[in-house]
């Protein structure tokens, strides 16, 4: 098991590095070792500019997302603002959908010529463009509306865990609500602030779809966009793409390493011990309630209601136009969803998400079980190994897997198998971590008793461990379903016409200029995701668990 896991995790990285030092793709008769790719990537203005764009965009996104998400988390977790519980569920909606869907929503809303708000401003006030989504600010806005929800969930969990007696002591000393929040609450959640900021920084740096879709019209490139162009635009430069992938990998590895160091130091901020504690709810006045609830409503309107309504409206048009009339409304885009190409993409996405997610869930639980049962060096090494993919950007991992199987005599490139392997490697850190938390509930005495009665380790796992963990497994499967169903950056270098998925079909429609057709696919994708999420919430309470954890 240790060997299989190591190959799954480290083989793509090894082949990526080999490819970055090669003059041609692996297996080419003229291939030989060279430093030219690294020299070009680390000295060329083209790649340096892409690197600086990545850093600046990630920095803005992480800081603003943390400020917005943290403020909303404080309102929901520590105040008596009216409507906060309902608004909290709406705040996390962007996390359920892919940032590609969010991007398309903002294109429908704020494209400079035909976006709905710009068209309305032009018709009502004679203003040409009030906001251009194809700009640095537009890219940052889309990323912030997505990752602020992530910061909200992370900060909410931290704020709920603070011992309320500390804030009560501050209040008794004469400090007001906002002074207590600034001087007492904020320092106590400082590790979460730093950790969340670094995670968002890494996620924004590796984001492929948002800066690529919105940056192309004004020639703005980040490292993921540059890697994609090197791989797909003729003449392709796969060895340069591999070297550029290492540049993006350093960003992710350093950010993840710093984030884990921050978590390791978090014990200095412990406020919950064996003594019972409860969170203190700040009593806001009438003005405070209006401002805090109004802020939550404003975010929900900007991040959820307005852009997604624009996406749905745009899906009923043949093309985006500044002159919107009832005569332009059509069902053609939705009728095209019944074409063979879209049917294949939908079928593949559901198959990979449902059955691939089930296989991944069982694999992660079994791997976590092996780690728990391994008390020697192999168990510790495996425990550290599964963390590695969390620091590997999806596009870089896809590139590494591509190089791996191009260089091996295994006929799985362009098949569903290579995609499942990619998804398995991509989510192993998250899956094993959640599985290990769940396995704490299962005493070793139960499996040992089964083995004493003649059961093998595999049968004990199947007949004892899996039934006990069924609710956790179903929740894990739901999260993996969403991850696989919305994955784009990892899939885009590994698919062919037989293995195309809905995110790829959406991307191809955008690339070919069929924007409103892509809007309809995005709506279909959102409907399927919400159906699964609300069914899972009704059955297992997954939305509540997301906030509670």
TrEMBL record:
One annotated Gene Ontology cellular component of this protein: plasma membrane
Gene3D superfamilies associated with the record: MetI-like
Domain ABC transmembrane type-1 intervals: 51-259, 346-536
Membrane topology: Multi-pass membrane protein
Keywords: Cell inner membrane, Cell membrane, Membrane, Transmembrane, Transmembrane helix, Transport
Localisation: Cell inner membrane; Cell membrane
UniProt superkingdom: Bacteria
Cell membrane as UniProt keyword: yes
Pfam families: BPD_transp_1
Organism name: Pararhizobium polonicum
Record GO biological process: transmembrane transport
Similarity annotation: Belongs to the binding-protein-dependent transport system permease family.
Chief localisation class: membrane
Name of the protein: ABC transmembrane type-1 domain-containing protein
Recorded coiled-coil stretches: none
Residue ranges crossing the lipid bilayer per the database entry: 46-75, 87-111, 131-159, 180-205, 239-258, 296-320, 350-371, 383-406, 412-429, 472-497, 517-540
